Amino acid sequence: MEQGKDMGDLFREAFKDFERKPSPKVWNNIENTIKTPLYRKFNFSKPMNLIIGSAIIVSIMEILYLVQPNKQQVNTQLQIKNTEVAENKKQNIITNEENTVVSSPKIINKSQKAANINTNNDLKINIPKENTTKRQNIKDLIAQADNDQIIYENQKKQNSANTAALAKTNTAIINKSNNDNQNTIKNNTVISKNNPVTEISFSPDQTICKGDKIKLSVNGGVSYLWSTGEKTQYILVNPTSSIDYSVIATDENGNRKTGLISVTVSNCNAPYIPNAFSPNSDGQSDIFKVYANDISKFEMVIVSRSGQVVYTSKNINEGWDGNMKGKQAPEGVYLYTIKYTNELNKEQIITGHVTLIR
Amino acid sequence: MISEAEIISGCVKGDKRAQKALYDKYSAKMFGVCIRYFRSRDEAEDALQEGFIKVFNNIDKFRNEGSFDGWIRRIIVNTALNYYKSNLKHYYSVDYQEIEENVEDTKLNFDNFSVEFLLSIIQSLPEGYRLIFNLYEIEGYNHKEIGEMLGISINTSKSQLMKSKIHLQKKLNKKII
Known about the structure:
The complex is a heterodimer.
Chain A: H1 2-15, H2 24-33, H3 38-41, H4 47-99, H5 105-118, H6 135-194, E1 201-202, E2 206-209, E3 214-219, E4 223-226, E5 234-237, E6 243-250, E7 256-266, E8 276-277, E9 296-303, E10 309-313, E11 323-324, E12 327-328, E13 332-341, E14 347-356
Chain B: H1 4-13, H2 16-34, H3 41-58, H4 68-82, H5 88-91, H6 115-124, H7 127-138, H8 143-150, H9 154-176
């Protein structure tokens, strides 16, 4: 095969340094698809990276731990606020009692109790035991109540001053912790940017013949949800009309990517190939031929069972009349190979057998 | 000018500039490979794109055992073959067609042919022939390797190569006449 060898050399030489520039969109697509996974940036097999990696983990845990007490501080402040409100309420009660000129010692007792609670027993009030109905006693009591009020007021002022001071400190702490939080969030964002965004790609748009099945798939990702409701990586569809399928793919980090795959259904007509013919000139099925529309580059080869070629044709309108080299071919089974290009410009090969009956 | 080793180590780290440098260096060459396997430019570009994504994702697996050029080319060729995988069995199922064909014995003056013309006749080959011709004659794989790559027997690979050459010969003859 000297000739063949020459031809191989010719092509090999010609294509040795053959280059062709792809269109710019190819790089754009590649650039959008490739992301640098974290595990590659931090290759844990290298000891230095392992140290850095564990340092990061430890610091994240620390930050998380620090955030907890801050929450408690916020709670404390809230409690302080609530106490303040409660104190105000109690103060109102006392004031009201004063205005209405309290006549019942019970109420005074009550207010006294309240005052006692709120001022941590710092108030010195003589609790009247008897003669509480006497006007003087009442007067005294009122005076005492006034006095209490002043003491109470002072106490309160002091309290609120303390509260304010406390609140200030808390705010400072909270502000600080907020900063920490922000840092944490910032860190998290940085980390999630570096998280391995696994490349997810989808089957390209498809064109199929009516009745054909087609497999649509997602490359990458761990969970999937198709518009058909299926949750598998691949789906097999046989739409009867053109339709778009969408799929939401999620990778191991929860990143989602939605894909849209259009399937165009074309009305390809499958050729009709009879499985028997009878070349006896009765006008019925005398010729074996293929019936088809919208096909091109038709080629048919018919061979006998012994492998002898009995008929070849490149014209779809012609068929075999059952004769071989001018003689009638014997009855029996013959094999055919039909090659054609369908309307989607796809080469199709059909092989089968036909029975010759006389 | 950064060296190839620097580009590769940059790509392993995921450095964007290194990735672009790698693409710029090899894309035209690899597209030249891809385009021999497909009739349309679009299909070839799809395969190139997918091939390069594989290259970038697996570049850390490249061990300096062979040339980087060879490594990347193997990935590109395999990606191109993947496009045909589902149809492969149809391409090679018919063995008794063109039984009576013979190789003609005319000596050809090959200098007359432009690469563009040669590319066009490779692209015009039926898929099955095109794959084997490319793999054997241009990429330089042997029949055993091709058999494994395409899941066919060594003999099928041999006979298909013969047939692909007959096809090409006819086209070349036509051009001369």
